[in-house]
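Structure, all two chains, one model.
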Amino acid sequence: MHIHAYEKIWLAASVLLILFLLGSVTYGAVGPGVAMVSDTEPTIDAGALDEDERFSEPRVERVGENEYAAYVVARQFGFQPDPIVVPANSTVTFYITSADVIHGFEVAGTNANTMVVPGEVSEITVRVEEPQEYGLLCNEYCGAGHHVMEGKVNVVSQSAFEERTDGGDGE
Amino acid sequence: MSQALEGDRTFADKFPEEARIVRAALLSSFLALVIGAILGIIQTLHRTDVARIIPSTDYYTVLTAHGVFLAISFTTFFLVGLFTWAVVRSLDRPLLNTKITWTWYALMAVGMTMTGVAILAGFVDSIDMSADVLFTFYAPLQAHPMFYAGLAVFIVGSWIAGADFFRTWLAWKREHPDERIPLQTFMVLTTMAMWYIASSAVAASVLIFLLPWSLGLIDQVNPTLTRTLFWFFGHPVVYFWLMPAYLLWYTVLPKIAGGRLFSDPLARVVFVLFLLLSTPVGIHHQYLDPGIAEGFKFISMTNTLFLLLPSLLTAFTVVASVEYGARQRGGSGILGWLTDLPWRKPEFTGMMLAGLMFAAGGFSGMVNAGMNINYMIHNTIWVPGHFHLTVGTAVALTFMAATYWLWPQISNKPIYSRTIGLVQVVVWFIGMALMSNAMHAQGIMGVPRRTAEPEYSGFEYATMFGGFEELNIQIAIGGTLLFVSTILFIGNLLLTMGNPTVSGLADPLPPALSGPADSPKVLDNLRLWVGIALTLVVLAYALPLAAIIQRGGLLGPGVGTYPVWLAPLVDALANATTALVGAVGDASAALVEVVR
């Protein structure tokens, strides 16, 4: 089969481009140790979240030095808790599940983004820096009221966070 | 086929019955296009808050219908029409039995009508029927059973169409035992083989899970499983839309440019690569899904990126063939030949602009495919921005532009106004450039797709260059231009249909510069390629599907209640499958670990 010389060069350049893209993603994940949403969390019963230790009372909890866990439930048409308040300069792991249909969990303008599937728990870990208010939205169509399904993620200063959690749901 | 055989008779002269079928299929396609365009403009003005003539809760009915009518009905009807033409023309023989042909056409039309009625009934409160589940129909959002049943009937119709093409080819093969498969027929057969593989999963999902569930026979389904089966089909289907456009770019565009296809063997290689690679990639739509291991996602990304290869090869071949045409017409210089192309022909300019947009769409597609950058844009309006470039322009604009060339061949009627045609394709290009540019930009700001009111009350998007409102205006203007372009296209075609029949419109296609004889015979061995394609599918999907079923069960995480008479059967089936899957899963656990 006859392949023109220019065609061969083009073919080689195409394969190099593909390998470069693969390499850059692999480095992006393995190098800095970025974890993707995966199957780390076991399935749960979407119909019985009120009996679940973590999701019966959606909340933010301190789990270590500067480390926090946020348990979030998405249901038609809102998020719990709302707002999700986390302290600045910390690492927050979100555990998100759905009580009904498939939702999305997207902190607008950031890469904190995951699908929320009933029966599954999405785990994403993010690093939060300065105090700032972020919009939280559902980015998967979930029913007639989908467009009102919004919330907030408030990153507040450490002191403001501690004041808030003095009520007792902190540690 | 050689010019001598074709003479100066058109397709319609030689195969009047087949031409009627092709016209019927194309007209069905264009009917879907008009409905889709009307829904499109309602949607674009609603989303951008320029004019909200429907309540936001009905927006999703509009969105579902827009997606299904354009992505399934418009594309597939055009494809079966075009493929009927391509098979009959390139084999130069009639179909075996047009009764069968009309049967599949009728099945597809009935199926699409059922699905369409189920969706559109969502507007009428007094009818207890709706299917506001969007094009992706993710369970556990449920549609009326007629929605799923209609889709199943439509897909079965498309399967019979494929069988029709294969049977016609086999009959030809008996008559020409030693000849290579003509290029267009080769493209049709590889595309349909890919379609059988891809659509089997969605058919299984609909028939085994979603339809029984919507009829109340089973209580629940496994949302991750049905979603994965959808995307098993949902990515290859985009190549099912694209491959007819490729067929036109390879076999018709070079002729219009004044030349011939550069290389027949490479065109075959490209179609074989699509057959092999387009199915084992669907999980790249699920990068952000919980319940699927990172390793499976990574494998899917690798396959996806290699799928760039046939598209990059196509870019080379199409440009090279067009350049050859320009030089035949006297063009010279490194870029000077570009001015020697027939830019006044709507069929040429339309297809070239479509190809240009496809390049842009390819770049945003590379972003989608990268599993890390995907976090930034997943489910934002970036994604519709991307596929309005690929299917919405590369495919749709190619179909419309090609119609200006094809319609006289299948009807013996000259196009009413080629000037209107030229304006139409350019307006489409400008409209899509505005709309999809703004969609991409908003997507990076985090504006979601699939929502009636993206402005939200509690927060604002971080502003960037242009700002949310300005981009909204771009989207609204772009969407309006697209609507205008569709109306121009349909109006021009209707006026064409009113033209008197004339003769002398034949425009036979020349053979490729480097013909089929230059390609290795193994390329025509369809059994081999289908076998490899199936193997790749099994490699890419067996483990993820096994893992999903093992995690959540066949019918979803949690215990469901079934009607008593069905319970033992369903339980036994679920248990047996879970056990089987478990065994497979355990046996391959080592492999999974490696993959992770």
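Confidence is low (pLDDT under 50) at residues 1-6, 559-569 of chain B.
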